[in-house]
Design a protein that fits this description.
Shape: globular
Number of domains: 1
CATH class: Alpha Beta
CATH architecture: 2-Layer Sandwich
Bound molecules: zinc ion
Radius of gyration: 16 Å
Number of helices: 7
Structural class: alpha+beta
């Protein structure tokens, strides 16, 4: 399973996200971070979801791979849903410069808290973090990434 630890982020991203979480908290927003670093293998398995035919594998085979990574068993309908367009090493999570999180309301994950996500997006922007809730292609509300540090790592 992917890491949930802020400590597993790239040192520069760690600084930014620590500040980000502090700011969110000071504005009364509680969040649950559920992914920071994600391995190449796990990215591949997530990428296969919704693309079983393309990869020529059965749901049972996919679930076997998921089990090895500590991921839950997908139902046939879940297995049809594409959850990422990023192949291994195309996701900022493999470079430890991204965080997936969900706001907590009354201690429970609020996946559809659009207004709260928007506020988090504003906080992110001020810290030079990018919020995928604003992306044109494959909008992903829980995903925040440190594109500046990622670019530096790639030498651009
Ligand atoms: Zn993400």
């Amino acid at each position: 399973m992917a890491s949930r630890k802020i400590e597993d982020l790239h040192p520069e991203s760690r600084k930014k996200f620590t500040e980000f979480l502090k700011k969110a908290k000071s504005e009364g927003i509680d969040v649950l971070v559920y992914c920071t670093y994600r391995s190449e293998e796990e990215q591949q398995v997530l990428y296969m979801q919704g693309r079983l035919e393309k990869f020529g594998i059965t749901l049972e085979e996919l679930n076997e791979k998921r089990k090895k990574l500590g991921l839950w068993t997908l139902s046939p309908s879940e297995a049809k849903r594409v959850v990422t367009n990023a192949k291994p090493w195309q996701s900022a999570h493999q470079y430890s410069v991204a965080v997936d999180l969900v706001p907590l309301q009354g201690g429970k994950p609020a996946w559809n808290a659009t207004e709260t996500y928007r506020k988090l997006g504003e906080i992110a922007k001020k810290l030079e973090l990018e919020w995928a809730g604003e992306w044109k292609r494959f909008r992903e509300m829980p995903h925040f990434q440190d594109s500046a540090t990622w670019k530096k790592m790639r030498g651009r």
